[in-house]
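Summary for the funding panel

The consortium committed to producing paired sequence-structure records for every protein in the target list. Below we show the first two records in order, beginning with the earlier of the two.
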Amino acid sequence: MPFYKLSTQPSDTAAVKVQVEGHYCISMIDGGKGPSTLLPIIFDTDKVFGQDTTFSKAHGFAGKSVNELIASKQSGAAKTSSAFAAVPSTKLNAGESITITSYYGKVRRSEERRNAGA
């Protein structure tokens, strides 16, 4: 489960405060009649939006597949937080649907993720 955070607290002061709190996300796709499958998370905003700091266009998908984005190295430190459940590929016939369930949270330290939701 990825953990992503800013490295310092954003504020308009002369003092710098180190940020240890962060966020996590876990997502799964409902298998219908079978077991649910955990989905990979794309948490690096640069991978999705490229250099678009307004986050209005997903430039990262231009010429890249979801599988390529998942396989590339991600960085979640010192960036605006994000989390996107990545469905590598799926085919739906007419009238079929899938359900993606995601849980988002915030913890004080990375180690607390394993106890989240317990």
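The next record, for a separate protein in the list, is shown here:
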Amino acid sequence: MSALFELKRNWKNRFLLSSFIIFISSFFLTACTSTQVDAIDLNKEKAIDIYLMPYEGFDIHIAKKAAEMLSQDLKLNVHVGETVPMPHHTFNIVRNQYEAKFILEQIKQKSFDVKNTKYDTLYIGLLDGSIYPEGEHLNYVFSMSSSDRTAIVANYEMMLGVSPILYYKRLYKILKRNIGKAYYRYPPSKNPKSIMLEPIIGTMDLDNLHFLYDNEIE
């Protein structure tokens, strides 16, 4: 049974990764037609602009492909760190969710151990689960950021009952959106073609969201 389980898991991982590669190709052929995409040299000596911090359970291969895609799209050094333990102390048993506020605090603490960063490096945690904001009447949020350059992205609602391709589109939008908000400090937008459009309440809003910042729109 263990060998069969391992075979199924390996097949699933290969399928997810190949789906992400297909999405990357189609994204640059369609969504970014107005933007020239140049190949860049991701120099490991260059200071890290965006540090992705995957928690246990989040597919590291997907994190690395997302980092590669963001690096090419934004001309930033997006780096994926080692997998970190799940923040079990932030889990709310009643809600079956993690409280975003406490995860952001943990990400901030872990950021002090990261090398080759700079004063404005953004640290984004990647969580295989669902998060909620403290004191707000919301069932969930896709992500949450703080003023100290930390953010958390949770994938549960993004991937629930949808194809891998749609999940990756949603994930990429949320990551780029958080970079816009917490790294570039872009304000919310009223432009319906902007990735910074507000509000984004559920998956329908997220699916209708475009891929570009205001300054990328022609």
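Regarding this second record: The longest helix spans residues 2-30. The chain has one domain: 2-35+44-186.
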